[in-house]
Amino acid sequence: MDKHQYLLETELEQLKSRADSEPQVILELSQQCLVRAEQMLFEKGAIQALMIMSRCHWNLMDYRKGLKDIKEAYSRQNRLDTDIFLPEILHLHALQFWGQAKYYSAQQYWINALEQSALVDEIEIQIECLIGLGNIWRITHEYKLACSTHQLAVKVANSSRIGWLEGKARILLAWDYYLLSNYVEMLSVLDGAEEALQDHHDNTWHAEVWDFRGLALLGLERLDDAEKATEKAHGLAIKHNLTWMKAHSYISRARLQLLRKKPEEAAELLVLAEQSAGSFDNGELLSQICFQQSLVSEENGDYEASLIAFKKYRQHSIDMLREQTTRVGLDKARNSKRQLEQRARKLINRIRGQHEYDPEKHFSHVVSETYWWEKLVLYKTELKSSKHAVIMFQHVDPDYLEVCTELAHAICNQNDLISRLSTERVALMLSEKGDEAEKVFNTLKAMLDMYPWHRRGLKGKKPTISLNDILTFPFTLEQLEETPEKVETDGNATK
């Protein structure tokens, strides 16, 4: 990669991080990057620019153009000798179909993206696909399946320490709980979402947290608290011009007024909700609005208006269901749907098995010495872009090292590896570096200091611990044993 290509790729990475918050600006800049990439015959840069453009179109709700851009990216990807961009390309296809309410197609692409992301270890895309599949099942009224899939998305995001995706998954899990009338659990999940998103810039998510909190409080008939929450959500939606949230917050406020026996005010809010949703929604919100309008009219004693609203609700619901069967013949659609769901369930169960507790597999992060050294050499080749560090425990008594292994395993992330390098050494290869690695190191050091060693019959000196830069760490055990010790006294380390 020459200098110009490297600079363009760096610029594209920066643009990608702003695609959700400034879609119109980033769309124009990424179009310019596409032209530059084509001028320098930099195909990977062109693909990345097209992916950013597609994401911008998704944020601007221009799904037709978004689909056109991502199809072009897919065509160019097929000419490369690597699948590095394929999981995200498939995910972006799914997003555009989801935006067009083509749920059958979106489901197909999310399943394919989930398979590809599992192959190349793209955790973020894997979580996005789980979220997407959960949304498909929610909108097709498979609420329990949607709930379990979003629970898994939360678990994977939490395990991988991807806070913004955990917050996103929690919001959607709260929606599932609402549809299952589990309001208490909903509030707990939303508290976790607020914590995960406290430093995130997406105002839509913050508004959604307050809106769903309001719905949960309505379900628990805590009307005063619900009013404060729905007003907070509506204020954020108006302040930041959040189209989807404006419509949804009108619905929430209408439900509140209906519970307070104020059907006239509820009817006015639902008219505003319908006007707001009509510009972008393909059925999901509009069906909710019409159903609420039917209830409000019935409360008012206007049964004719109630019937008209209910017919509109039925029409929107039927339109959403029809999409799943009109793309292919009915029998074929039913068969394909079953096959898709079987594939999705197999993939989800496989991912669940990687993240859920298995009592027969206590030390899933402990690997063989050979494998550990192979990974060390691989990460060393990344040079300055390496994101790893090594924490070393040392003691002459293997019983102490067993405890060290247990303590290290308790704080392991998905990509961390532990190995017994010799009779006197246990090493944790940490997928963190710099300040984050030092925090983990200090935590482990404190754990060694506080551990009740006497309960294990261990009354001698505590193990020593050191934090090592992966680039300066020896290549072999022989070199390691020749290296002067970094730790002189119990638990006191130099870094």
Structure description:
The chain is mainly alpha-helical and 495 residues long. Helix content is 69%, strand content 5%. It has a 4-stranded antiparallel sheet with strand order 2-3-1-4, sandwiched between helices. A hairpin with a 2-residue loop joins strand 2 and strand 3. Helix 12 packs antiparallel against helix 13, helix 13 packs antiparallel against helix 14 and helix 14 runs antiparallel to helix 15. The radius of gyration is 27 Å and the shape is globular. It starts with a helix and ends in a 13-residue tail after the last helix. This is Tetratricopeptide repeat protein. It comes from Vibrio gallaecicus. InterPro entries: TPR-like_helical_dom_sf (IPR011990), TPR_rpt (IPR019734).
- Into which percentage range does the β-strand content fall? under 5%
Question: Fraction of residues in helices?
Answer: 55-70%
Structural class: mainly alpha
Total DSSP helices: 21
Strand order in the largest sheet: 2-3-1-4
Q: How many E strands?
A: 4
Order of helices and strands: HHHHHHHHHHHHHHHHHHEHEEHEH
Poorly predicted residue ranges:
327-335, 357-361, 486-495
Radius of gyration: 27 Å
In this structure, how is the largest beta sheet organized?
4 strands, antiparallel
Through-space gap between termini: 35 Å
Shape: globular
The residue-averaged pLDDT reads 84
Organism: Vibrio gallaecicus
Protein name: Tetratricopeptide repeat protein
InterPro entries: TPR-like_helical_dom_sf (IPR011990), TPR_rpt (IPR019734)
